[in-house]
Amino acid sequence: MKHLLPENDRVSLVLDESGVAHVRLTRPDKLNALDSAMTNALIDAGKALFDMPGLRCVVLAGEGKGFCAGLDFTLLASAAIGDAHLLVERTHGNSNRFQQLAMQWRKLPVPVIAAVHGVCFGAGLQIAGGADIRIAAPDAQLAIMEMRWGLIPDMGGFALWRGAVREDVLRELTYTNRVFSGEDARQFGFATYVDEAPLARAKAIALEIASRSPTAIRAAKSLFNRHHDLGTDAILLEESIAQQQLLGTKNQMEAVHSQMERRKPEFGTEFGKP
User: Fold this and answer.
1) How far is CA 196 from CA 88, 116, 133, 137, 208, in A?
2) Where are the domain boundaries for CATH 1.10.12.10 in the chain?
3) Is the model's pLDDT at 80 over the cut of 60?
4) pLDDT by residue (tens digit) across 41-57?
5) What distance in Å separates the CA atoms of residue 252 and residue 267, rounded to the nearest whole number?
6) Which fold has domain 214-260?
7) At the N or C end, where does the chain have fewer CB atoms within 10 A?
8) Predicted structure pTM score
């Protein structure tokens, strides 16, 4: 296990021998509410992951009794008073700093799996929304909480929930701030699966993903990230380009040979473009 962030009391990042990075929100006494220090630590974690050698998958979870209770009141007050003018600045590609907290998981070149338990409110729900796959405990409590404070979801929620959550349901939950369960989250589209042990399920899926060709996994995620904004003709062409780049590469041939020889594959560690 390699610890890959400067020592802090907000976020931990560990890379295991299988290439799975484990990101944990570590402010359990405040239900992992986002203050300025946690915001900085999460951004640092995202930066570390983008170019991490050997990375194959990420598991995102919160320690203690909940995933994330949303914004800390101190951060909400400071943003309202002093930082509102900064929201329209694009500091991280197409995102501002707060949007990057959720969008960075979707932008990562590898799959991200969020394990949700306890409370997952507001900003926490948008952060979880950035994951490719979300596992929720059946008794988890989730809510789009921003309207309670006279605000809207503005950390990427509208972009991340598009196509996953039925729009009339999303509207009702946004307008009312109604708390819903992990079981409801699966039906609505906020969660992929419901499991009594969401972190264990997330780790198991991550290990399965890590056993696949890393170049193919990255190519698939790239297509997933772009296909909503492409027409059918463009999608078909992008599929063909990606497949052409994969065919005959070392990792692709190793995938074939390992299947034929009924053994564990030994993929290369360079996971850039095929």
Assistant:
1) 40, 10, 16, 5, 19
2) 214-260
3) no
4) 999 999 999 989 999 99
5) 9
6) Lyase 2-enoyl-coa Hydratase; Chain  A, domain 2 (1.10.12)
7) N
8) 0.93
CA 111-116-121 angle, to 5 degrees, is 115
**Tell me, which fold does domain 2-210 have in CATH?**
2-enoyl-CoA Hydratase; Chain A, domain 1 (3.90.226)
Per-residue model confidence as pLDDT tens digits over 125-139: 999 999 999 999 999
Q: Judge whether 25 and 63 are in contact, CB under 8 Å.
A: yes
Cβ atoms within 10 Å, residue 181: 17
CB 271 within 8 A of CB 252: no
How many Cα atoms within 13 Å fall on the side-chain side of residue 114? Answer: 28
Give the distance, in angstroms, between the CA of residue 57 and the centroid of all CA atoms in the same chain. 10
- Find tokens 């944990």 and name the residue: 24
Within the chain, which residue ranges are assigned CATH 3.90.226.10?
A: 2-210
Report the alpha-carbon distance of residue 145 to residue 20 in Å, rounded. 31
Helix/strand/coil (H/E/C) assignment for every residue in the chain: CEECCCCCCCEEEEECCCCEEEEEECCHHHCCCECHHHHHHHHHHHHHHHCCCCCCEEEEEECCCCCECCECHHHHHHHHHHHHHHCCCCCECCECHHHHHHHHHHHCCCCEEEEECCEEECHHHHHHHCCCEEEECCCCEEECCHHHHCCCCCCCHHHHHCCCCCHHHHHHHHHHCCCEEHHHHHHHCCCCEECCCHHHHHHHHHHHHHCCCHHHHHHHHHHHHHHCCCCHHHHHHHHHHHHHHHCCCHHHHHHHHHHHCCCCCCCCCCCCCC
How many other C-beta atoms are found inside a 10 Å radius of the C-beta of residue 25? 27
